[in-house]
Amino acid sequence: MEREHFSKQFDNELNVIREKLLEMGGKVESMIANAMKSLVERDTELAERTIAFDHEINTLEMVIDEKCLEVLARRQPAARDLRFITLALKIVTDLERIGDQCANICKRARELNQEPSLKPYIDLPRMAKAASDMVKEALDAFVRGDDALAIKVCQDDQCVDELNEQIQRELLTFMMADPKTISRAMKVIYISKCLERIADHATNIAEMVIFMIKGKDIRHTIA
């Protein structure tokens, strides 16, 4: 009976970590959406709120880190439970960095909103949606233990990379045609790079999920 009680309590502690990670993932997805909305709709107030919101992401990172370390110290887990907690500690770092990238997008959006529009934003929202979907699916794969979904996330990174290259090529033509656009174009390219890095963080999470499930390190091997 005492062993059963111990096991149930341990499972509850792992569930708390899992739920906190999903909460953090949901907040990060909202940040991506709001960062892009602040740019497309030229909503500087939303950009400011999103930058301030990054504080909540940082707080969640510390809460999850503390919980994971506490479980490691008290329970000394092994095998799959140990891999789960180790993975949680890495995922939380990637999610925190996604929050940082969203704040960076908002800072550039805040500057761009004070200048005339360079062009309608079409590909950047597509890129943001693709990157946000990758974050969501990577976390879904983690929760479900779904390696097929994790592999899909890794493959989707190629689509985001291609959009990033397409945006950079297009903006280069703007800058060559009219040097007055260089400053604004460089800020848009910076935002595109932020989205590309968000997709990279989602890929990191997916690769770790595959390692957790299959015990195989597939980094740099999926095209």
The percent range for helix content is over 70%
Instruction: Please state roughly what percent of the residues sit in beta strands, choosing from under 5%, 5-15%, 15-25%, 25-35%, 35-45% or over 45%.
Output: under 5%
Secondary-structure element series = HHHHHH
* Ends apart, CA distance between termini: 50 Å
**What shape does the CA trace take?**
elongated
Tell me which oligomeric state these chains represent: single chain
How would you describe this structure to a colleague?
- There is one protein chain.
- The protein is mostly helical and 223 residues long.
- Helices cover 86% and strands 0% of the residues.
- It is built from 6 helices and no strands.
- It has helices at residues 2-40, 44-75, 79-112, 123-144, 147-177, 182-214.
- The longest helix has 39 residues, at 2-40.
- The protein starts with a helix and ends in a 9-residue tail after the last helix.
- The model has no long low-confidence stretch (mean pLDDT 91).
How are the elements arranged and paired?
Layout (H helix, E strand, L loop, with lengths): L1 H39 L3 H32 L3 H34 L10 H22 L2 H31 L4 H33 L9
Helix pairs in contact: 1-2, 1-3, 1-4, 2-3, 3-6, 4-5, 4-6, 5-6
Write a concise keyword list for the protein shown above.
single chain, elongated, mainly alpha
Write a compact overview of the structure shown.
The chain is an all-alpha fold. The protein is built from six helices and no strands.
